């Protein structure tokens, strides 16, 4: 007898469609009565290749309606995918909740977080990022996502000369980090923590590497 499907296709108000692919692709439990962290982790281990294919096709997969309670259960679900862990070395002030699990940002809620690539200035960058909402806010709280591959293709179509010029000459990005870490800024991690050195003079060389 065939195993009943664990996931059911769902939808999200306000979801976008780019080149025929919805963002995000939403999955809900086919049986809400059996949708805890252990069941979800087992389904991920069983259906991992299919979920990875959805991620490659749609850019983001949203798991909505599953009973995952806290950082430890979230970590078990993440580890069920079998993907390698990367240490967090970015510039945002975050608190470690569990191994592999951090708060998203400790800056004041009224500060705007712009679109960005996670740890984009590091030599090694993560290929995947997970988000988890434990307590939904009374209002707001949306996590905005954008597909850089779609943006790049649109830029090539609309601004071909600019894209060609940037590809040929490169770009220089300047960022300012505080001397000491603070939770009052979105980019509030000190340059000492980001560069992992207390000496300001080697910093320039570390960036250029």
TrEMBL record:
<dbReference type="InterPro" id="IPR042098">
    <property type="entry name" value="TauD-like_sf"/>
</dbReference>
<keyword id="KW-0560">Oxidoreductase</keyword>
<dbReference type="GO" id="GO:0016491">
    <property type="term" value="F:oxidoreductase activity"/>
</dbReference>
<dbReference type="InterPro" id="IPR003819">
    <property type="entry name" value="TauD/TfdA-like"/>
</dbReference>
<dbReference type="InterPro" id="IPR050411">
    <property type="entry name" value="AlphaKG_dependent_hydroxylases"/>
</dbReference>
<protein>
    <recommendedName>
        <fullName>TauD/TfdA-like domain-containing protein</fullName>
    </recommendedName>
</protein>
<dbReference type="Pfam" id="PF02668">
    <property type="entry name" value="TauD"/>
</dbReference>
<feature type="domain" description="TauD/TfdA-like">
    <location>
        <begin position="46"/>
        <end position="166"/>
    </location>
</feature>
